[in-house]
Specification:
- The chain is mainly alpha-helical.
- It is built from ten helices and no strands.
- The chain folds into three domains: about 50 residues, Winged helix-like DNA-binding domain superfamily/Winged helix DNA-binding domain (Arc Repressor Mutant, subunit A), CATH 1.10.10; about 45 residues, Arc Repressor Mutant, subunit A (Orthogonal Bundle), CATH 1.10.10; about 50 residues, Orthogonal Bundle (Arc Repressor Mutant, subunit A), CATH 1.10.10.
- The chain is elongated, with a radius of gyration of 27 Å.
- The termini are far apart.
Length: about 180
């Protein structure tokens, strides 16, 4: 009679290796990376650097990312100028000042020159003055009725939102 061998069960070491292999991130191919990029762009517009960063986090290779970015640009889905124009307009309407808008957009990887052009076009001195004035009145009341302590708080608040200090002084201390 031959001895029957029982099947060998994996030991703890083999189980650990299998678990490690399952946890390793899989590198997406071109089609998968393209699908990921299109899903990301379907949610909202992204700048090129922002999209690159998200694709890197998904594990795509640089060569694949370059090809996907080129395709998205060719299809018109990726346009930094359009993103900057839209974001500047939204942030101006949300009553952010030019310094803060510049910081937010450059931090997201958008071109500083594009941001400066759009700020010059959409955040004129008169418009900034009007928006800062409405923010000041809504948050602190009219500047004529403010005491020194409240004026100092209002000054810090508006400067913290990115408005030029000269403009804020002009609004707070006009007589």
């Amino acid at each position: 009679m031959s001895e029957r061998k029982t099947p060998r069960l994996p030991g703890p070491r083999e189980d650990a290796e299998d678990r490690k292999a399952a946890r390793r991130p899989k590198v997406p191919d071109l089609a998968q990376t393209e699908g990921i990029a299109l899903r990301i762009l379907a949610l909202r517009d992204h700048g090129e650097e922002e999209l690159r960063g998200k694709l890197r986090k998904k594990g795509a290779t640089e060569a694949t990312i370059d090809r996907v970015i080129a395709r998205c640009r060719a299809w018109g889905y990726l346009d930094d100028a359009r993103v900057v124009a839209r974001e500047v307009e939204l942030l101006v309407v949300d009553q952010w000042g030019p310094a803060r808008i510049r910081q937010k957009l450059v931090t997201r990887g958008l071109d500083a020159e594009l941001v400066a052009e759009q700020l010059a076009a959409k955040a004129t001195r008169e418009r900034l003055r009007e928006i800062a004035s409405s923010r000041l009145e809504r948050r602190f009341g009219t500047s004529d009725t403010l005491d020194e302590r409240t004026r100092a708080r209002a000054f810090r608040h508006l400067c913290g939102r990115g408005y030029p200090p000269e403009l804020v002084r002009e609004l707070l201390f006009r007589r």
